[in-house]
Each structure stands twice: as C-alpha cells, then as structure tokens.
Amino acid sequence: MRPPTGSCPCSGRPAGTARCSTSRSSSIASPSTTSSAWCSTRTRTASGGEQGGRAVLSGLPRGRALSVDRLKLPHPLVWKLKRWLDTEDERRLRESTAVVHEFVDKYVRLKRSGGCTSSGGDLLSRFAEDGTRTDEFLRDFPLSVVLAGSDTTPAAITWFFYVLSSRPDVVDHIREELRLVRARRCEPGGEAFTLEELREMNYLHAAIAESLRLHPAVPLLPRVCAADDEMPDGTRVRRGWTVMYNSYAMGRAEVIWGKDCGEYRPERWLEVGVFQARSAFQYPVFHAGPRMCLGKEMAVIQMKAITASILEGLDMELAEPRGKHDLSISMRMEGGLPMRFRERRAP
Ligand code: HEM
C-alpha cells in the first residue's frame, strides 16, 4: 500500500486521514508498526536516531521485496547461485538485511545492558533478562513481529475499502452502528472511539471478517514436513516435502461457505446482531493451531478504529479503477488504492 500523498491543505494532517472540506484523492494510509514502540526516546538516539530509523524504514520493504523475488524463482538453487555470483539484487538484499540487523542489534545490546529507558515489562526485555536467549533470537523476535504486522494489516484494509467502495448499503449499516455506539455514551467523550466501544461494533467486525474471507492478506501458507507423515485423508507426505494450503481458495469454497460463497455478505457472521467467530480451520485467514497469528486481535481492532474514524467523518469514492492482485507474500493490491475523500454533511 502506498503511503498517503501530501497533506490536507486545511489542517496539515496527512491526506486520507484528515477531515478536509476539499474533495481530493489520496491512497489509504497504513497503520504503521515501527520499532520506536520498543524503547524510549533516549534509546532511539543512542541506537542511531532518526537517520538509523529512516534507513530501516527503507531497508525493511526493500529487503522484503527482494526476498519475495527469490520465492518467484523456479528453484532455490537459482538464488543460491546468484548469491554465490554476488549479483546486483543479492548484493542489495545483503545490504538491506545488514542495515536492519545493525539497527535491531543496537536495541538488543541496550536491552541486555539495561540501558533502555522503557519499563522493562515488555516481552523483549523479559527475553533479554532471562539470559538463555541468543542475540540472534532477540533480534529475530521483534523483527518477526514488525514484519508480520506491517504488511498484512495495510493489505487487509486496502481490500476492505475496495469492497466498501462498491457497497454503500454496508457503509450505511456501519455508520448506523457507529451512531448507536456514540448514542450509548453516558458522558460526552473525545472524538476517538474507546477500545470498549470498538469491541461493541459487531457489524463492523462482521464486515471486516467477510472482506478477509474473500481477500485474505496471507493467501498461501506453506509448511515443510519435519518427518514422514500421513494426512487425515490418508495422503502420505515425506520428510522435506512442502505442504501448502490456500486460504484464498478456502474462503471461496462452496463446501465451507455454501452456495453464496462468492457473495460479500457480512450477515453470515452475525447471530441476533452478535458477531460469531468461525473455526480457524475453516477460516484460516490468521492461520490455525499453535502457530496462529499473535496479532489477530490487534489487527482487527486497528482495522475497526481506522474504518470507524474514516467512515464517520468522510465520504469516499474510488479515484481510479483498481482490484488487481500484487504477487507478494501478502496479498496486496497492485498500485495501491487511490481514493477521493469528502467531508460528510450531517445526515
Ligand atoms: C489482517 C492482519 C493480519 C493477518 C491476516 C495475519 C495473518 C497471519 C498468518 C496467516 C500467520 C501465519 C503465517 C505463517 O505461519 O506462515 C500470522 C503469523 C503471525 N502474525 Fe499475523 N496477521 C495479521 C496481523 C498481524 C499483526 C498486526 C501482528 C503483530 C503486531 C501479527 C503478528 C504475527 C506473528 C508474530 C506471527 C507469527 C506467529 C508464530 O509463528 O507463532 N500479525 N499472521
């Protein structure tokens, strides 16, 4: 997803999130998951400051894109050969990885030495304190959280807004829910919805779940067999084989979702107005079993918060036709999603 372009001429806030009375086009903004949350300002300065942070912000997506290019090759031997020959893309991948590792390693060293000013109650501090984890583990742990969350949620929101742009009935329904949640407030509060209020939004939850069913952010999930095994249907798999399931196809399978499987229908997730989760084994959008997504609740709340604040204040329409898939690890939209926002008039 592309970052928002420019800022609102009225407020100076980023376009797409600002309440702006002029109609204008912008790409949907992504919620950023940055490393700054791990530690305080003092640490940021000590670990390379803004410059280091900027290098990481460009190194991370570049490294990810180059890694995805490796996956597109017909056989792993090809990139191994390219790495041995030190081709341009392999060199760039090595450099991007080094920038990111250097940045995170500094945080890890600070955590180990107790030089970080955060409370010490975060997971990384706990791992660092227990003394049994290697530096490599401590570096990969926060990186995997940042990588897992930084591409998926923006991809999911992009497709959700794409779906909403052709379903004014669903938008109306969401707005009605927002109105009721606001009306239930005992005391007038701030503009932003509270966590509790976001949790009460059953219809919005259903609309998001239904969008993810048809447009899962992680469409293919491969696993490599650790040992010879047999699948429940009797299919034998050998050690080293790759087994992959396709959550995109599962989300559109008639056998799971019924005859209307191709239809976007949030109501299928509601019973007497209350959101009903499906088995993760039928709906593996966040994977299923012990390695299920750790950020699932956070992702849904983020999506609710962003959608609620945008739909409450702004009308939107697609600025250009879109909807093609971008081949990557997560299912992004080719070219981002340019949208035009206009301040809503009171109904
Ligand atoms: C709509 C948004 C998201 C979707 C659809 C999603 C989906 C997934 C999926 C399918 C996996 C399994 C991947 C695999 O094992 O190959 C996964 C793992 C993971 N996700 Fe998410 N995710 C989302 C957002 C997030 C966010 C916001 C975070 C954290 C801030 C996060 C953290 C993680 C982590 C740490 C794992 C690895 C869990 C493990 O291996 O034990 N995810 N996610």
Please tell me about this protein's structure.
With 347 residues, the protein is mostly helical. It folds into two domains: 35-150, no CATH class; 155-317, Cytochrome p450, CATH 1.10.630. Helix content is 48%, strand content 11%. It has helices at 41-46, 49-71, 76-85, 88-113, 123-130, 135-150, 152-165, 168-183, 195-200, 202-214, 247-251, 254-257, 296-313, and strands at 24-27, 220-224, 229-230, 236-237, 242-246, 270-271, 274-275, 314-318, 325-326, 332-333, 338-343. The strands form five sheets. A three-stranded antiparallel β-sheet has the order 1-11-8. A hairpin with a 5-residue loop joins strand 3 and strand 4. The chain is globular and about 60 Å long. The two termini are 32 Å apart.
Task: Give the helices and strands, then pairings.
Blueprint: E1 24-27, H1 41-46, H2 49-71, H3 76-85, H4 88-113, H5 123-130, H6 135-150, H7 152-165, H8 168-183, H9 195-200, H10 202-214, E2 220-224, E3 229-230, E4 236-237, E5 242-246, H11 247-251, H12 254-257, E6 270-271, E7 274-275, H13 296-313, E8 314-318, E9 325-326, E10 332-333, E11 338-343
Antiparallel strand pairs: 1-11, 2-5, 3-4, 6-7, 8-11, 9-10
The structure holds protoporphyrin IX containing FE (HEM).
The site of protoporphyrin IX containing FE (HEM) has 20 residues, from helix 6, helix 7 and helix 13.
